[in-house]
Every structure is written in C-alpha cells, then in structure tokens.
Amino acid sequence: MASSLLTGADTLVRVRTVSPRGLGFQGSDLHGKHIPALTLAASRFPRIGGVRVTQLVPKCSLSASRPASQPRFIQHKKEAFWFYRFLSIVYDHIINPGHWTEDMRDDALEPADLYDRNMIVVDVGGGTGFTTMGIVKHVDAKNVTILDQSPHQLAKARQKEPLKECKIIEGDAEDLPFNTDYADRYISAGSIEYWPDPQRGIREAYRVLKLGGKACLIGPVYPTHPLSQFFADVWMLFPKEEEYIEWFEKAGFKDVQLKRIGPKWYRGVRRHGLIMGCSVTGVKPASGDSPLQLGPKEEDVEKPVNPFVFMLRFLLGAMAATYYVLVPIYMWIKDQIVPKGLPI
Questions:
Q1: Cβ 20 vs Cβ 65: under 8 Å
Q2: What is the largest CA-CA distance in the chain?
Q3: Is 339 part of any domain?
C-alpha cells in the first residue's frame, strides 16, 4: 500500500514534562539520524517525538495541533480494498516515483538491521512488493512473507522475479496470522495510513516478533500546510512523529528510534507531508505477547455499508490521492527553479 537538507538531528536529551504541540519541519533534514525514544520535553529547544533536539539547524517550526484520533474519510478497510483495486494498476509507476523511491526505501530499511540472510521477515501491508524488493537484497526470499489485504496488489508482487520464493498471503495488519515469537524482523511500509487502530497494529508487530526482534514501521508525517492538512485528513491517517513513538512504547518496545526520510529533491521542507516520511524502529525486550491490553477492534468490516456514503467517501479519497500525486511534481518543479541552498 501507499507511500514521505541539512544533516539532521544529532543529540537528543530525555526529559519528562509536557507533550509537544506539533510537528512540521520546515528546513529540517529528511535524512536525519535516528531520534531516540519518547519522553516528553519542555524547553526552548524544538521537540520531536517528545524529545528535546539540541542540535538541529535551522530550527524546526511546529505544526498545528491535531487530535490523534481525528477521523478521516478513507478509513474503512473495504474502501481501501476498492481504492487499491484500481490504484494497483499504476501504483509502482505513479506513487513510488514521487513518494517512495528506491533510495528512500533503502534509507528507511537501514535501521531494520537486515544483516543475516537467514532471518525470518514479515512485510505487513507489502502490496506490490516494492519494499520487499529492498528486503530481499539482504534476506533470502524464501524467509520472507508478504501480507496484504489487497489481492490486486499482491498479484503485482507475484509477478516480480526476485519475489518468486516469498510466501504471499492475504491478511489483516491488526490481526496477523503468525504465531507469537515467530519473526526476527517486522517491516511495514505505507500501510499504517489505513489502519483504523494503529496501536493495535503495532501491538501485533510486538507479538509476532521473537525476543530481541526488531520492528521497522515506515509511514507518512502530518503536514503543516493548511491545504495539505485538509487533504490528509479527508484521505487517510498522517500521524505525527511523537504519535509513532508513543504507540511503539505503549506496545512494549524498547530502544525506539525515528529516522526522517524523503526524496532528495524535497529539500527538507515537510510542510506538505509525505506519503513516506519517517522510519520508526523498536526492539522486543521479552518473549510473549505485548503487555498492552486492548478492547475489541474499532472497525467491523462485515457491517453493511450505505452505497451512496461509500461512493462519496471513495470519491473524496480519490480527490485527496490525486492532490498528493501532484504535490511531489510541484516540489520537483520548485527544486528546479528555486536557487540551491534556499528552502522550498
């Protein structure tokens, strides 16, 4: 499923107090170094994911606040299913060039520590297998499982020669069909946007990993530009960085880190958000299930849907998706016109 200049944030200090109010990163480094785990900071320094950034130039600007639970129109998994029924035809040619390039993919997977070809890896929401193509550079394809709810996306993955030995299955990111303590690595890129309950999906990531296993979740960042905020909110979930880190820590992960990613020509300006904007990792510190207890799922996919409401929501989502296809084209043109060294 779909996909976010300086040299980044270096030194961070963990201090407890109030939660940061927002995220935007005008002029900040999309290719920044890892950002250590959440503890909430209050100081004159900008804060990211609840930690104080002591070396980041120029200073980040903060985005408008947004409730973590704010609903978006494309939320139901059935709607996402049909959305990708059509998008799968052009996904690799339309979405990836602007939001999820090979360089971005390799950069985002680096913190996953795919150092052993015998590792057991699950790629959750693997779609057409674009991210999996980066995984099998480091891990034998026979040890990799691609899971997605869209058979149309998975059909594209099956056609790719390097993925012929991968296990390819349909499934739900919030209810994974893997045993507890099963995998060495959990990877998910461009899938969290469609999870009705991100905390549940990240809890599942914890459950299926072995002791010492690492989860790597790659997803979008919430924009600061008002128009982009509007389209983000009517389309799908664009979390803030501190939300990602909080979800990981609540699920039980330790050594939670966040790395910003983006196309090279984006010049670090994140006010429009990115389909793929950050790579978050965490390590499972103990065998067994997550210590986090949750109630029933938020979304019942078997519940009847009003066809007129469905179509309206589908069209709004398609409109928002078109906007986000055009954003990287707009940013690429600005990169060609605006003198180098100036933010765009």
A1: no
A2: 54
A3: no
Q: Is the peptide bond before 58 cis (omega within 30 degrees of 0)?
A: yes
CB 180 within 8 A of CB 207: yes
Give the total number of structural domains in the chain: 1
Q: b or e along 121-135 (b: 16 or more beta carbons within 10 Å of the residue's beta carbon)?
A: bbbbbbbbbbbbbbb
Q: Record the pTM.
A: 0.75
Q: What is the pLDDT of residues 325-334, one digit of tens each?
A: 888 888 888 8
Nearest-angstrom CA–CA distance, 222 and 220: 7
Q: What is the dihedral of CA 106, 166, 153, 132, to 10 degrees?
A: 0
Name the CA radius of gyration of the chain, rounded.
19
Q: What is the CATH number of the domain that holds 252?
A: 3.40.50.150
Report H helices in the chain: 77-87, 91-99, 102-109, 130-135, 151-158, 198-208, 226-235, 241-251, 307-337
SS3 of the chain: helix, strand, coil, percent, to 5: 35, 15, 50
Residue 259 has pLDDT above 90, yes or no: yes
pLDDT of residue 68: 47
Q: Is 94 helix (H, G, I), strand (E, B) or coil?
A: helix
In a domain, 320, yes or no: no
> Tens digit of pLDDT for each residue in 115-173?
999 999 999 999 889 999 999 999 999 999 999 988 888 998 999 999 999 999 999 99
Please check whether residue 318 lies inside any domain of the structure: no
Q: CA nearest 125: which of 89, 149, 145, 102?
A: 149
Reported as a single tens digit per residue, the pLDDT across 306-318 is 778 777 777 877 7
Cβ pair 232, 23 in contact under 8 A: no
Instruction: Give the percent of the chain with pLDDT over 70.
Output: 68
Token code pair at residue 111: 């913190």
Distance CA 105, CA 189 (A): 9
Q: Is 93 exposed, middle or buried (0-12, 13-18, 19+ CB in 10 A)?
A: exposed
DSSP 338: S
What integer is the mean pLDDT of 58-72? 40
- Is residue 240 situated within a structural domain? yes
